[in-house]
From TrEMBL:
The lineage of its organism: Bacteria, Bacillati, Bacillota, Bacilli, Bacillales. Keywords: DNA-binding, Transcription, Transcription regulation. Residues 178-276 form the HTH araC/xylS-type domain. It comes from Paenibacillus sepulcri. The keyword DNA-binding applies. Signal peptide: none annotated. This is AraC family transcriptional regulator. It holds the Pfam family HTH_18. The keyword Nucleotide-binding does not apply. SUPFAM superfamilies: Homeodomain-like, Regulatory protein AraC.
Length: 281
């Protein structure tokens, strides 16, 4: 199954993982994910790009982005801490919705190198958060949440530091945009009426479009299509489903509409994309 419906019993899940696989099918889910590499060299594999990670590196996976962590060498398994969480958890953090910026915009790098002080702080907090869970001393949940906030803050500060170095202004994100994004993530393969998003936002159409694009980098419709295209590319690459079936599975009621948006996104048709990926395998 290409999509992992990772429903959390709570809004936060922290695990220690060890894996020696050098090949594995990519997967995707609608949760936000942070991986902190602890031992050996890894390949952070995305659909069309791969990053080599060293111990101490941090990598964030965005919702519906096909991905997997692979060991760089079969005899040197990687060890990492995986932090999975629902975007709704930030409602418990003062101005926490701003901390989700790196997970929604493609302008922020998903790779935080170990050489960065931010990566070091994230690793320290992730290890302590995991230890709290393992020891389960009285009050461990509160302590773990404190470390989780520290992780989010440092991911956000890294993104802001990178933006400052490239001359970009700091991005302001309000809670209404996060609510709209979360709704989109939960209903991405269904019909999504932008008017429902505007109503959910509660501040009017102009404010919604302006603030959404400022935070995410694209309009609401472009964001919806971008997520659907990621799903479509993965299905085209890994299944034998017809283009029509994939279009409907991704939330499009018209094959013509699907083909049009796919070509806008990839500059080629879905069939051409499938043929190219098969030839490259």
């Amino acid at each position: 199954m290409f999509f992992h419906d990772l429903r959390l019993e709570q809004e936060l899940k922290i695990e220690m993982r060890i894996d020696g696989e050098v090949e594995h099918e990519l997967h995707m889910h609608d949760l936000l994910e942070i991986n902190v590499l602890l031992e050996n060299k890894a390949q952070f594999q995305l659909l069309n790009k791969s990053y080599t990670g060293e111990a101490g590196d941090v990598f964030i996976f965005r919702p519906y982005a096909p991905h997997y962590n692979l060991a760089d060498e079969a005899d040197k398994p990687i060890k990492w801490i995986m932090v999975l969480f629902s975007p709704s958890i930030v409602r418990l953090i003062p101005y926490g919705y701003r901390l989700l910026y790196p997970f929604y915009t493609e302008s922020a790098s998903p790779h935080i190198p170990a050489s960065s002080a931010f990566a070091h702080s994230i690793q320290t907090a992730a290890v302590k958060a995991y230890e709290e869970q393992e020891k389960q001393l009285p009050g461990w949940e509160a302590n773990q949440f404190m470390y989780f906030i520290d992780i989010l803050v440092n991911v956000f500060r890294y993104a802001m530091d990178a933006s400052a170095r490239t001359g970009d202004a700091e991005v302001e994100i309000d809670s209404g945009v996060v609510s709209a994004v979360e709704y989109i993530l939960r209903h991405i393969t269904e019909d999504i009426d932008v008017h429902d998003l505007i109503e959910l936002y509660g501040k009017g159409k102009t404010y919604f479009y302006t603030n959404f694009k400022h935070a995410v980098g694209v309009t609401p419709n472009q964001f919806i299509h971008r997520l659907r295209m990621q799903i479509a590319m993965y299905l085209l690459k890994t299944t034998n489903k017809s283009v029509t079936d994939i279009a409907f599975e991704c939330g499009y009621n018209s094959i013509h509409y699907f083909n049009k948006h796919f070509k806008q996104y990839r500059d080629i048709s879905p069939r051409e994309f499938r043929n190219q990926t098969k030839q490259a395998m």
